[in-house]
Amino acid sequence: MRPVIAPLLIQTDKSFEELYHLHWEKVLAVCYQGTRDLAQAEDLMHEIFQSLWERRTELCVEGPVANYLVRAAKLKLLAYHRDSANRRQIFDQVIPQKAGFEETTQRQVDYHLLSEHVNELVADLPHPCRDIFMMSRQKGMSNKAIAASLALSEKTVEYHLTRALRFLGKHLSEYQH
Hints:
By secondary structure, the chain is mostly helical. The protein folds into 2 domains: 4-92, RNA polymerase sigma factor, region 2, helix turn helix motif (Rna Polymerase Sigma Factor, Chain: A), CATH 1.10.1740.10; 125-175, Arc Repressor Mutant, subunit A, CATH 1.10.10. It is built from 6 helices and 2 strands. The longest helix is centred in the middle third of the chain and has 60 residues, at 65-124. The chain is rod-shaped and about 105 Å long. The protein starts with a strand and ends in a 6-residue tail after the last helix.
């Protein structure tokens, strides 16, 4: 049976400091090897030693402390990678939804602004053009039905529609891609 290192090993600040100074480089190396990020490796190493300090009165280590610390570093790395993968998966799910939501909202705002601008321009059309345009585009009437209801020729209806569409096209050119 391996010797058990009793809780007395790290009961004082001095004994903990000695333990830290003896093993921090090895723990950091293991953490860095698993993360390839020095700042993250240092954070993981400090978490390991913090946990060791917090559990110092109840912790019994079998075998060499160095082996225990290396195992603790490897377990901490596994947890780090698991958590990173979970965060990445959540991020990958949330960001497209958020981007889609923002894009949809922007499109709705753009649509309402454009719709208001078109309504203002239609209101500025001369009387016969405006009436014919509204009957055609908003009520969905055919040129023949408009001509019959206004007692005009179809050519006159086409002329006024063309005039209205040119006017709108000219004033809405900034919205064309």
